[in-house]
Amino acid sequence: MAVMDDVRTTHPRRYLPAAFGVAFAGLNIVGLAEGADLAPLLAASGFVYLGAAALRRPGTAWPMFWLTFVVIGISKAVGGPDSVWVLLGLAALFAVYGLVRGAARDPGGLPLQAVAMAVVGAAAAVTLVVGGDLGGYLVAAGLLGHAGWDAYHHHTGTVVTRSMTEFCFVLDTLVAISMVVVIVM
């Protein structure tokens, strides 16, 4: 029986979230010029966790991710308000919804995710204002911090699905390192 467990955990599908993280990081790295380019990704990282915590369903993390993908894509395609501001507004709406639905009772859920969203959201907003190398370092630090957040949630198995934590960890780490490389070079 132990042999079957080992085979199951090494199945190639097991690595799909990480592979998806590598691919998505590649999409975000192409044409990377400054920190403001990645500010929406930083805001999205907090939004996904907050949204799942507000709904109290870890499985909603992937639909939350796709929502951020659409918001960022539309913002880039048509202009208008920067997607960071849209994501911050949506995060506030989800937080209120979660409060009304009683999600604040779990201190590791909505309250903790709201604090995390405030931190990464503020970092993303400040990046839009300061731009340049400082903004790039701020985004890189925020993404590396969020990678640690992903590792913690993967270990505890709370708030979002493990596949999301794996995907996010790889994405956040690779994009943060790439941002630092762009700044240094």
UniProtKB/TrEMBL annotation:
UniProtKB keywords: Membrane, Transmembrane, Transmembrane helix
Membrane-spanning segments: 15-32, 62-78, 84-104, 116-144, 164-184
Descriptive protein name: Uncharacterized protein
Protein's organism: Virgisporangium aurantiacum
